[in-house]
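User: Before I run my own analysis I want an independent prediction to cross-check against. Here's the chain; please return only the structure tokens and, at the end, one sentence I can use as a sanity check.
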Amino acid sequence: MEPHLTDWLGILLRWLHVIAGIAWIGASFYFNWLENRLQRGAPQAEGIEGYLWAVHGGGFYRLEKFRVAPKKLPAALHWFKWEAYVTWLSGAGLLAVVYYWDAKVYLIDPAVMALSTPVAVAVGAGSLAVSWLAYDALCRLLQRRPLLLAAAVFAFFALLAFVLCQLLSGRAAYLHTGAAMGTVMAANVLRVIIPSQKSLVRSVEHGRAPDPQLGASALVRSRHNNYLTLPVLFVMVSGHYPLTYGHPWNWALLAAVSAAGVLVRHYFNVRHRGEQSRWWFPAAAVAVIIAAAAVTAPWQSGDGDALVTTAAIRPVVEKRCTVCHARAPTFPGFAGAPGGITLESEAQMENLARRIYDVTVKSKTMPPGNLSAMTDEERALLGRWFTGIGAAAHE
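Assistant: Structure tokens:
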């Protein structure tokens, strides 16, 4: 595909993905907050489970929730589903454009496993389908044991992250783990939540007593979606930080930060119910601090060799890096410098010394898939350069 077309497809799909995701996550957060904040203690009108007063935008609102359903449906009934569907569809489009179209750039890392493009794409796409099937089976098997179900779902995604990190590039493994969670969330809407709601609507329309279990099942899946949100958002931003997905224990780091995200959501859910449980948030903070400390090793101190100058590493950067990181990249598939980073002068190299060190020496995530074949000797040379010229310039 022509590079400019690929870039524009990526920009537009990412824009749509973010817009739809904000709408979906916002609705999820709001309705879970609403469920937890309903006033249920006082006597309610017939058929009403709880109510809530709110003020927003210069006006007052009074919201009510029925125990099951009203006796008669209103003329206009609002549904919340397209936010989820558009988020997933745009995300699938991004997967195809960024990871599958030219798999050797971001999907495959020969240093991890030298997969062919069809096999790597099958692993990535297959992980999404397998995740939904496994999650749905766990929900059906453990639906009456919510804590065990939560532990089993967490263990499954930790295992998935581990397996993907052994097969795909670290960045792709992270992204596909997040996409698997997103697939579960969207499938919950498509396969459980909306069908349950449609069944309730049909029961009311035909004068039948609605099955309260359908609403309860939909609520459980909705809460699962709520808890998965923060881990998915972490995956979305982690692509900008190679010290996460490029670490040798990348899967464990992802599991730890995801656990912290779940704890943060639980803290707010408990708080919104009016319960006092203060330790969830500190526990999440401790989990993140431990994870960050585990992956932040001291900068390399060098091996005693003579000082390596910027002029000495310039040929390496020009041969291995500026094929992409230039105003006019020469590597096929790139219309512009990735991230807007150019390395065409020694001043640019020194200004970005720490970043160069992070991605070429510490995490070895650049060049992506080692497309320009940077050698271990060249990485060691860049490490000695940063220890001398680069580190001194960034103290």
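Sanity check: Strands lie at 48-56, 59-66.
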